[in-house]
Design a protein that fits this description.
- By secondary structure, this protein is mainly alpha-helical.
- About 75% of the residues lie in helices and about 5% in strands.
- Strands 1-2 form a two-stranded antiparallel ribbon.
- The radius of gyration is 20 Å and the shape is globular.
Length: about 300
């Protein structure tokens, strides 16, 4: 394979990994701290994308629309948590799965009613619409911006969790919820803020994915499966694990889809090679998950 093509696919893998990290960071916090299985997390990814697409023509600026969409998605998360999810914290995981699956159906139909069933194609901001020359490789500037945003969010979350009082309370609440309540901390408010933060990060991922993918109903479910794989590989409740798992999954998935068909063409005809390569590439991340769990059952960087 051409070296430039390999570098391009590697950058695509990093970009996918960053998108998965934005999703997984919020979901792993909610699962690790609140012990809530939220299948509707991908819904906020979809809502963030649709709100960005709707606000760009109104505000006339992609960055402003993105910021507004993230804030509105976080506020929507607060409302959903207060109305639908707060009563599920002490229920078993099956009840949580059923309730959040119902939220998926509800929001999919609501978005279809408001925005219509036809996919929306969102253009990147004018400043990032071109390409950047990376040693002879013309790579889209917007994809590099996604990488930069992901790195900035990772640094922000590390500072928040490891270096602030709020982060200390979040870690303490994940370790011993009853003791934190006994110390006078409003755990309900803490949980609500954590859930809103997770929804805002999912909305940010959707907003950044809008110019790369089509904004369409059900787009959240497609990325949610990969997000759960990331969390399992990285370790439930761990931001560092979410970052490591997301980058691993992004690279394995992207490079597998690029390299495996080419490798099979060495031993079989092109049609069969493409089919076999695509089939194995789609299995690669699950094989990776099985290998990681066989070696480290709690994930690469389990939360302590």
């Amino acid at each position: 394979m051409d070296a430039l093509l390999l570098v391009e696919q590697g950058l695509n893998g990093l970009q996918l990994g960053v998108m998965l990290f934005l999703m997984a960071a919020g979901l792993t916090l909610v699962f690790g701290i609140m012990d809530l299985i939220n299948l509707a997390h991908g819904t906020f990814y979809m809502v963030g994308a649709y709100l960005t697409a709707a606000l760009v023509p109104v505000l006339g600026s992609f960055p402003l629309a993105l910021a507004a969409a993230v804030l509105l998605t976080a506020l929507l998360g607060l409302v959903v948590e207060a109305v639908a999810l707060r009563t599920l914290y002490r229920r078993d995981h099956l009840d949580q799965v059923l309730a959040t699956f119902g939220l998926i159906l509800f929001f999919n139909e609501l978005v279809k009613i408001v925005f219509g069933p036809v996919p929306i194609f969102l253009n990147p901001p004018a400043a990032l619409a071109g390409t950047v020359d990376l040693f002879g490789l013309k790579y889209p500037a917007f994809r590099l911006a996604i990488l930069a945003v992901g790195i900035a969010v990772a640094v922000f979350l590390w500072l928040l969790i490891a270096r602030t009082r709020v982060g200390m309370l979040i870690r303490a609440g994940a370790t011993n919820r009853e003791m934190v309540m006994a110390l006078g901390v409003d755990v309900r408010l803490l949980f609500s803020l954590v859930f809103a933060l997770g929804c805002g990060l999912a909305g940010l991922a959707g907003a950044m994915a809008g110019p790369v993918l089509a904004v369409q109903v059900g787009m959240g479910e497609q990325i949610l499966i990969l997000t759960f794989v990331v969390i399992v590989i990285g370790g439930i409740g761990s931001i560092r694990g979410a970052l490591a798992g997301a980058l691993l999954v992004g690279m394995v998935d992207t490079l597998g889809r690029a390299l495996l068909p080419a490798a099979f063409r060495l031993v079989m005809d092109a049609a069969n090679a493409s089919a076999a390569g695509a089939a194995l590439a789609s299995m690669a991340i699950y094989v990776l998950m099985a290998v990681v769990l066989a070696i480290r059952p709690k994930g690469l960087f389990p939360a302590h």
